[in-house]
Design goal:
With 126 residues, this protein is mainly beta. The chain is built from no helices and 11 strands. The strands form 2 sheets. Strands 2, 4, 5, 6, 9, 10 and 11 form a 7-stranded mixed β-sheet that branches.
């Protein structure tokens, strides 16, 4: 089993920045794709960003390209999401996810990911 714990969410104003962190434990995760998703009430969980096991490839949803950056530190079993120029429409619960497959891809469907954190709330006021 893998446990994922997110932190770093909060209430900010439009234009501000936040850095989300995801700590993984339980089993080594440095060979697997990890991602960030977000969800608002009544909507499907949405892919935000993903990163391959060594950080060699990343992928972002169009809505966050140029503003968000995903990174990972395998020595610390950590994944980060740096969010700049936040907008009110970025308000959501953000989830860290891990895909327990050795295939080096970055799926955008939530069903392709195996383990999930409990989520951290990000609220951006206008």
């Amino acid at each position: 089993q893998v446990q994922l714990v997110e932190s770093g969410g909060g209430l900010v104003q439009a234009g501000d920045s936040l850095r989300l962190s995801c700590a993984a434990s339980g089993r080594p995760v440095n060979t697997f794709t990890m991602g960030w998703f977000r969800q608002t009430p009544g909507k499907e969980r949405e892919f935000v960003a993903g990163i391959t096991w060594n950080g060699g490839r990343t992928n972002y949803t169009d809505a966050v390209k140029g503003r968000f950056t995903i990174s990972r530190d395998n020595a610390k079993s950590m994944v980060y999401l740096q969010m700049n120029l936040l907008k009110p429409e970025d308000t959501a619960v953000y989830y860290c996810a891990l895909r327990w497959e050795l295939e080096v891809t970055i799926p955008i469907l939530s069903t392709e990911y195996t383990y999930w954190g409990q989520g951290t709330q990000v609220t951006v006021s206008s």
